Amino acid sequence: MPNPPDSAEERLHLSSRIKGAAVSGAIMADPRIDIDDRDHNKRGAGSDDTRSPGKWRRRRGYNAEANSDYVAVSWTWNAAQDDDPRSGGYKVETSLKDDFQPSKVRDQVFERIQHYTDAHSGQLKYVWIDQHCIVQKEGPEKTQGMQAMDLVYGLSGHPISLLARRINSEDVRLLADILEGVFITHMTGSAEFRLSPLAVSSSQVLEDAMKLLEAITSDLWWSRAWTFQEKYLSESKMKLLIPHFSDKELEKEKKHKKKVFGTAVGELCVKSIDFHRQVTQLCLACKKERPNLAASADRILGKASNYEILLRDTAPDAQYLTRWSQSPRIIKDIEPRESKFCSDRLAIIANCCQYSIRLDDVKLRRGNHSVSLALLALYLLNGEMIKNEPLDREQKQDCLQKTVSSFIEDESFDGFCPPHSKKPLLFNNGCRFNNVVLTPRGMLTKGHLWKLQLRFQVPIEQFPSRKDDRNPLARQDYVLWRLSQLQHVLELLGYAPIAKELAKFIDKSLHFDDNESFSRWYTRTMAKMVVAAMDAHKPLCLGGILEGDSDFSYKGIFILDDCEEFPVCSEWDTDEDWSGEEDAVGQLESEFGSGSSSDSDSEREHSYGFTIAKPADEPIYVFTSSKPKEEGSRNSYPNDIDKHVSIEIESQGARLEDGYHRPNLVTKRWINGLCFFRGHPRQEVVFPWHPALTNNRGV
């Protein structure tokens, strides 16, 4: 008898992406759940069917946002080669109370879930599994449920993935070595790594390790698009459950490596984040030092890579540099994976990339639409940046031969300049235009246009040193100390508007707010980068907003040099929150005054005896925009991201000073800056299409 369809209200579908909606379709995984021993006793003593038909009750009104203690299961509906395909041994309650029907989910899946929950001493009572917790009938309710799965796995405190390939005792030892980084050596004082002496001297062991990783990542679970999303959205918490054979030697090794493999019966419980990090480092090292393993490494990286490691460059001075957003790589990794409908990938990509603008995949399935072009439209509508500099005929033809995912990977902007951070992708992923409209001319968006003209360098060596080097100021105080010096220089130069704006910022920074806004976080981050440039003796550049006939005044401080040229300095590590103490500014002012009047400025300039060079360089033009993410409400969860852009541009045609309406802008390079634009309206600009996307066949 087929399972009666549950009502949408009795399932988790997070209608309209309701934030923290009740996980109405959660089923109870409590080991104390009703087990029908009577049916088990009816089996003959010689029966080989030892399955116990457990009953799983539906939990109504479960609030996932308030309680993350539920297991979100990532699994493949089709049985893998090593899976037992039998089902029906477990019953799940339908929308009708106490109406239990045999589940189509494989019995082995329920058993493995039970093993995992048992290892947590019965503390985990609830399970979310898609076949029972999402409306399966095609329609808007199913679509809403599928597009909200990022919430399900993101909110779960216990997401698990069920791999199928069993491993033996030798594999367990080898896998433990991989996860513990035995094959990798990290360079002292650097982010770089290479193969360890063991890996170099024992080439066969290294090859065996790579073969094991190929075998693990060849599992059916790694080939599905939906499981990619489930893994990606919960990787920091997800556990990979790898089944193993029953073997005394294996159990001994597993017990010895309990911190690595956990204690679940019949399972190696591996932290997904650790697996992906170690695998990525090993594969990248093999690609550099073992050409014969490069192809194998690429295949593994296509399934199990950590983007923070994969997409970064390592500089000689040990800085972490990442010039790319991870969106193109996400799209590339999802493209070859399987899904029932090609259009499903659009929802998966939107969830993983945090796209608030969605396409109607139901309409895409019904009509004769190109999913590839829909993907490109989705990418651009959500503000992702594509290069648009002119190309010659041959370059355009090369672009036209690419798939959409390859085009996105190769032609997306790849010159981001994130602040010094251990997680630069968090910055890069938000580098997007806001409120994009696709027009015949290109991408229409709004922001501010800046003209950068005055370059200067702060003579920090001429300012008072700290009073007591044995007790250096705290990191946050140091930043304010430097900014106060910069403010003083700007006053001496006679640029009162920008000096006053900087003074306001310093004053606000003295009062820390735990619930700071995105704009304040971003401004603080840029302030730290300005201080970094000062410490590196790099020039700064003042910029003013172009607003047609309005008076031009400097309202921004920009950093023209790329961040990889700056030395590592803990005082301005942007991973740290900071809120200044008044002694930093007060000590500075007590030594050379507050600089509040033009007369005292002049006197102070003479007493310190420094001059500021003002070269008449060609101006640089910059486009900036920012938009805090749309916050979720009781009725919606937009899956938005904070957006920010600060990029050097050129104008196609008219001079930007002429105030041309909706100028055409060509992207050049990223330029960070501390900007004060409050009270200045945004203006519309157009970034023309990439040359390969136009009908113009000429150069």
TrEMBL record:
Stretches assigned to the Heterokaryon incompatibility domain: 70-230
Positions of region (Disordered): 33-60
Transmembrane segments: none
Biased composition, class Basic and acidic residues, residue ranges: 33-52
Pfam families tied to this protein: HET (PF06985)
Domain of life: Eukaryota
Name of this protein: Heterokaryon incompatibility domain-containing protein
UniProt organism field: Colletotrichum fructicola (strain Nara gc5) (Anthracnose fungus)
